């Protein structure tokens, strides 16, 4: 533990759980990830099934513009690299670099949300306009909620890392938080393939 953490009274220290990566919290987060992955799977299946059955134009405004979506995907995926790097730096005793990596990841995640909201504003329809709009806003909105939760998790991890609560032996919370963030990023790949790429396939 760092000098800052050692100087705190015992009751004021963060309860960081058992040493190692496979703590109870890790398995709990893995169970959460599996459950949420199933929910996203149901939403994506519903989208693809209804898209294959409809006779209406899909999407109603024409094929998606890929430029902004691809850029936003790269932004979110790159944030995972910084979260992964943060844990590695902390384990090597480079706490300042670990904090910096988490701050960059938070900025990238917030940028992703900002671009997503810009895309929402660019669409001429809403959640209740038609079937496609309902599916689009439900899927992307559900994912955005997960990104927001992930940003809160990263913010706490940044604070706790800065305070020196983690070291080479006790970084389970960083591993658990990273697992959730990586899940959010991987799920977006499936959403991007569904909402942005599949209309090009269905249009053939």
From TrEMBL:
<feature type="transmembrane region" description="Helical">
    <location>
        <begin position="178"/>
        <end position="198"/>
    </location>
</feature>
<keyword id="KW-0472">Membrane</keyword>
<comment type="similarity">
    <text>Belongs to the cytochrome c oxidase subunit 3 family.</text>
</comment>
<keyword id="KW-1003">Cell membrane</keyword>
<dbReference type="GO" id="GO:0019646">
    <property type="term" value="P:aerobic electron transport chain"/>
</dbReference>
<feature type="domain" description="Heme-copper oxidase subunit III family profile">
    <location>
        <begin position="1"/>
        <end position="200"/>
    </location>
</feature>
<dbReference type="GO" id="GO:0005886">
    <property type="term" value="C:plasma membrane"/>
</dbReference>
<dbReference type="Pfam" id="PF00510">
    <property type="entry name" value="COX3"/>
</dbReference>
<feature type="transmembrane region" description="Helical">
    <location>
        <begin position="135"/>
        <end position="166"/>
    </location>
</feature>
<dbReference type="InterPro" id="IPR013833">
    <property type="entry name" value="Cyt_c_oxidase_su3_a-hlx"/>
</dbReference>
<feature type="transmembrane region" description="Helical">
    <location>
        <begin position="26"/>
        <end position="50"/>
    </location>
</feature>
<dbReference type="InterPro" id="IPR000298">
    <property type="entry name" value="Cyt_c_oxidase-like_su3"/>
</dbReference>
<feature type="transmembrane region" description="Helical">
    <location>
        <begin position="62"/>
        <end position="84"/>
    </location>
</feature>
<protein>
    <submittedName>
        <fullName>Cytochrome c oxidase subunit I</fullName>
    </submittedName>
</protein>
<keyword id="KW-0812">Transmembrane</keyword>
<keyword id="KW-1133">Transmembrane helix</keyword>
<dbReference type="InterPro" id="IPR024791">
    <property type="entry name" value="Cyt_c/ubiquinol_Oxase_su3"/>
</dbReference>
<dbReference type="InterPro" id="IPR035973">
    <property type="entry name" value="Cyt_c_oxidase_su3-like_sf"/>
</dbReference>
<feature type="transmembrane region" description="Helical">
    <location>
        <begin position="96"/>
        <end position="115"/>
    </location>
</feature>
<dbReference type="GO" id="GO:0004129">
    <property type="term" value="F:cytochrome-c oxidase activity"/>
</dbReference>
């Amino acid at each position: 533990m760092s000098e800052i953490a050692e100087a705190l009274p015992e009751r004021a220290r963060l309860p960081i759980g058992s040493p190692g990566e496979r703590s109870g919290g890790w398995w709990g987060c893995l169970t959460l990830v599996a459950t949420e992955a199933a929910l996203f799977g149901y939403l994506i299946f519903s989208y693809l099934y209804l898209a294959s059955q409809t006779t209406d134009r899909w999407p109603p405004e024409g094929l998606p513009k890929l430029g902004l979506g691809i850029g936003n995907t790269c932004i979110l995926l790159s944030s995972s690299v910084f979260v992964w790097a943060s844990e590695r730096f902390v384990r090597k005793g480079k706490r300042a670099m670990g904090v910096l990596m988490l701050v960059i990841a938070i900025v990238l995640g917030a940028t992703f949300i900002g671009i997503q909201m810009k895309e929402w504003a660019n669409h001429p329809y809403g959640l209740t306009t038609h079937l496609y709009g309902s599916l689009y806003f439900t899927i992307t909105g559900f994912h955005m909620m997960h990104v927001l939760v992930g940003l809160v998790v990263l913010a706490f991890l940044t604070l706790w890392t800065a305070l020196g609560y983690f070291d080479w032996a006790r970084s389970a919370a960083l591993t658990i938080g990273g697992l959730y963030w990586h899940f959010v990023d991987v799920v977006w790949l499936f959403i991007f393939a569904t909402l942005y790429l599949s209309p090009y396939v269905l249009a053939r």
